Amino acid sequence: MTLPDVDPARLEEEWSADKEVLASLAENGDRSDIVRAVDVSFRGSEPALDRLEEDAEELGFEVIEREEDEEGEISLFLGCEQTSDEAAIRALTKRCLQIELIYDVEYDGWGCTAETGLIS
């Protein structure tokens, strides 16, 4: 599958938000070199999310769950294992924005827990 080019302005907009999340993780003692579960979410129509769910594994993700909010908007949560360093998160965001273009869904961000390397 050929991945489309992402609008650089859109990538920078997302990267600005990503940097805030990374700063918050760092404040909580995160060691960005530790591989951990990272989830991403997409909103969209049922047929678009169905297609994305079918292709998730090919795109490097596993399906976590599908959720409907109070307004009836459906979100699909996907997960992968990776680090939270800047290069890895930037690559993840770019891949998600490419998915947004291919599947006609809306990328809604990523999340993970801070990993300190300490056993609690």
Automatic annotation (TrEMBL):
Gene3D superfamilies: RraB-like. SUPFAM superfamilies: Hypothetical protein VC0424. Residues 16-112 form the Regulator of ribonuclease activity B domain. InterPro entries: RraB-like_sf, RraB_dom. This is Ribonuclease E inhibitor RraB. It comes from Sphingomonas glacialis. The lineage of its organism: Bacteria, Pseudomonadati, Pseudomonadota, Alphaproteobacteria, Sphingomonadales.
